[in-house]
């Protein structure tokens, strides 16, 4: 479908290639135990995951700072599960989370297979809203950094997806026109609508079992990309 026009493929990282939920859960298992925080991990994660998505949306919309994101998502979770955790420990956990998150390296099924398939024929890049210090480590520790020419993050761009500028910066760095570019990501607002706004093609990796839509192609397994490229 895209074979004749696409030269460059841009991927989101978290929830698209790098299995954020799985790696995040393993990180919390480690740091909650090390800091003697007495909560049931499953109960904590059940509350934390939607709260984290909510605060990331606020961060993406420039409504909260990075420091507020890191603190408030934990504070709100502990309050909701009824755990009494001091601000001092919350700040320690926030730092520990960042320090250890990238040490876990689980990828989505078929990540390496699809990158191996694409890299001989396409230029591959990353566009991520994550923090530079962590995203670079994730790529290295997961041993997939070798596949990507350009890695553009929101700290580098000064804005976050879906702001058009981060996509324009990525296109500029990759030296490619929007019509020859394909964005693959899990977030309908940030990845798909953001890419479409600057004229890029897109594929929605449906990592969260979202309802079907007709904005672009949807896939549930990365290996399906082979059908289109």
The best one-word shape is elongated
Strand proportion: 5-15%
Distance between the termini: 7 Å
Order of helices and strands: EHHHHHEHEHHEHEE
Question: How many structurally independent domains?
Answer: 2
User: What is the mean pLDDT?
Assistant: 95
Protein name: Haloacid dehalogenase
GO molecular function: 5'-nucleotidase activity
Pfam family, one: Hydrolase
Report on this structure.
GO terms for molecular function: 5'-nucleotidase activity. This protein has 229 residues and is an alpha/beta fold. It has two domains: 8-19 and 107-227, HAD superfamily/HAD-like (Rossmann fold), CATH 3.40.50.1000; 20-101, Putative phosphatase, domain 2 (DNA polymerase, domain 1, Orthogonal Bundle). Helices cover 48% and strands 12% of the residues. The mean pLDDT is 95.
């Amino acid at each position: 479908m895209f074979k004749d026009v696409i030269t460059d493929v841009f991927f989101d990282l978290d929830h698209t290639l790098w299995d954020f939920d799985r790696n995040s859960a393993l990180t919390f298992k480690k740091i909650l135990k090390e800091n003697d925080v007495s909560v049931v991990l499953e109960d904590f994660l059940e509350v934390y995951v939607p709260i984290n998505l909510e605060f990331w949306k606020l961060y993406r919309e420039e409504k909260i700072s990075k420091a507020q994101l890191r603190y408030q998502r934990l504070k709100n979770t502990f309050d909701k599960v009824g755990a009494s955790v001091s601000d001092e420990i919350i700040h320690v956990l926030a730092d520990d989370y960042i320090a250890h998150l990238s040490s876990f390296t689980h990828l989505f099924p078929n990540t390496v297979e699809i990158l191996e398939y694409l890299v001989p024929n396409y230029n591959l890049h990353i566009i991520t809203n994550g923090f530079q210090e962590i995203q670079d480590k994730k790529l290295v520790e997961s041993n997939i950094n070798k596949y990507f020419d350009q890695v553009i993050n929101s700290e580098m761009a000064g804005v976050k997806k879906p702001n058009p500028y981060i996509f324009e910066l990525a296109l500029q760095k990759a030296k490619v026109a929007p019509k020859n570019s394909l964005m693959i990501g899990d977030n309908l607002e940030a990845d798909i609508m953001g890419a479409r706004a600057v004229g890029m093609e897109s594929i929605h990796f449906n990592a969260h079992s979202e309802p079907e839509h007709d904005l672009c192609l949807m896939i549930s397994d990365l290996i399906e990309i082979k059908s289109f490229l």
